Amino acid sequence: MAVAHHTGHDAAPGPLHAGNHHPHVPQHLSGPVHMLHGPLTHRRELERTRLYRFGGWSARHPFIVMMVWLVLLAGAAMSARYFTAHLAGSNNEVRGSDAQRAATLIQAQFPRLPRETDLVVVHSTGLTTQDEAFHHLVATVVQRYRSESAVADTADPYSAPQRLVSADRHTALVPVDLVGTDRQRQQDAKPLQDLTRGLSTEDIQVYFTGSSALAAAEVDQGAVDLARAESIGFPAAAAVLLIAFGSLVAAAIPLLLGVLAVLASFGALGVVSVYWPFDVFVQTAVSMVGIALGIDYSLFILTRYREELARLDGHTRADRARAVGRTMATAGHAVLFSGTTVVVALAGLWLVRSPKVDSMAIGMTTAVVVMMLLSVTLLPALLGLLGTAVNRLALPWTRKSLARPDPEHSGWARLASVVMRRPVAFAALGTVLLGALALPVSGLRYGVDLGAGAVKDSPAGRGYTVLSAAFPPGVLTPVSVVSRGAGPLTEPQLDALARFTDTVRADEAVADVVSITAVLDGQLRGHTVAQLVEATRAGAGPLDGLLSQDGSTTVVTVRPRQAADTRDTADLVRRLRGDARNTLAPAGLTVHVGGAPAQIVDITDESTRAMPIVIAAVLAASWLLLLFAFRSFLLPFTAILMNLLTSGAAFGAAILIFQQGRGAGLLHVDRTGFIQVILPLFAFALVFGLSMDYQVFMLSRMREEWERTADNRRAVRLGITHTARVITAAASIMVVVFASFMFTRILEIKQMGFMLALAVLIDATIVRLLLVPAFMRLLRAANWWLPRTLNRLLPPPYHSKHHVHST
Tell me, what DSSP letter sits at residue 61? Predict the structure, then answer.
């Protein structure tokens, strides 16, 4: 079929001949330019694809597909309950870290030690611990908690008033030793919290708090936050969809798919939860990704389907099936490829040695995969069932545009033309603007918020507030210094431990130290090491929990003055590790420093180590994917540059607001002085994946026009014209969904919501509408260049075999 000639600065003039390149474009610049087969041949090529056949089959047999999904979703609803019921609090453990080795050594050498010690806080503003009523209530608390099967032991605060009674004698702490796994302790926290009911009086308040109690409260707060975010995000997303589609029926479909994506994802994760613990943040992240991508992908497919409907001569069932088939062979294929790019980006998180990051990667990847499956199975069945009914209940002023869409004479087309007339100016303007916004990234400061502030209104949170006012906050999260020798401790090693203890006790950041040398000086002076070991083997005694039964291992417990998530405590952990190396290692002791404060230091160091590795891996994988998709050497580099500018600008803005506090008041957020430690890792992976998502949709349409005309300017203009409206609508929905999570209390969720919302906003405006057309106009035909060697090595692309393109 003859092809009209298109001329211009970017065009390759002359007729298109069969072969691999345009005859008037040098082979080293042309790349694999495929000839236009004509509308009829194009349709036949589409009909050979698997996605076309499966999409058509789903449209012809919608009830079969819907019944299968109904069964799956019913199972998911039951499994989802298990997932939400077994979420855990934040876990900052790092595999192979010093803190993990310390925990492993303690469990092996001190089997009688409790896995965790929480606290019952007994407080009165009017009475003191010496008053009879106060004393009687403390005795009741001890007796009640000691009878619980989940409690290994409790201690009377009057037996150690120097550590368990506040200086003003208005607060007493009852230590409660817990047994079981992390999940069991968190599940036991609620009934243990319930024990305080009926104990408090008008004069005395009783609270149960601690790591598991706070984690359980954080899980409950996460559920409340999620409901609040959805109550804000869903109506806003519905409004944007209604404006974008102009039809109530069409607007309802993406919302339905978003809800089903979250439900199915929770169901799949419920099965995995049997074997893998999930952090509470995973629930919010999966909802965030599932809703956003559910709406996003279904919007792209639905938009293409409506275009195919507009081209139909008739509206029979067979016609609808063909329209669905062509939609799935084009937009459906682009959705699968785009989802794959997000999955590949998230796969970079597996390079981080953190169970929390692993659980985030599993959760978000599951949400993406589930949405891809829904998009290519259930959605075509719904479209086949509805047919032209997707345009029903249209808004009055949109009926004409629905009947005769004309994107090539829209404002998007005019904007693209303006940008390509001044490509240097717009490229420079966009790059400088985003580069300036990314400058604060160089001052990124990691930190950890354990979430106590987010649950301050819960019983556990109120108990923690009272405890922090009456005692050093670090009393709840001590540091454990574990020392191990080749055999029973020797006198020189005990001397080294004594010097280390004295050094630690003199540290201004330390509130209290419990060490074997303090017991030796106070109670067991003059005893030989052999006698100490024998006394330890005999059972509970002065050295129980301080010296292992073989006499080789001892634990020095250091209670910081500040909370575990403060910089002062992090600095203390680093000093303890340095002092241990300098004092204990020369004596032949192997030392590991653990506890919650040490875990925070370790995960901060791990994030710093992993960040450049994750970035490099994601960039390399994305470049290869785009190389295979578009068979262009330069397009992957420009796409990566755009996405790096987007990510850098979003990170820089987050640092300005959350870390430095500039403009924090306008957004009603608090200045934290840091970015939550692992947030940059999975925020980068997700932002990069979502940015690549839009890149794939836009470049696919540009590639289609380039293959038809070999005119770069026309390809860029039409690519933007046909995708800008739907990308803008999809981005608007993502922005409102992500931004709605800023109304939550948990810091990680606030910062995550802000970064993702801003990144999508930047990507859909400055990058897609300004930078992409400007850079592609400047590169001209070189956009599509592929070296001959690479062209021979790469397998034939999907679109070259079947001439399939995206929306």
Answer: S
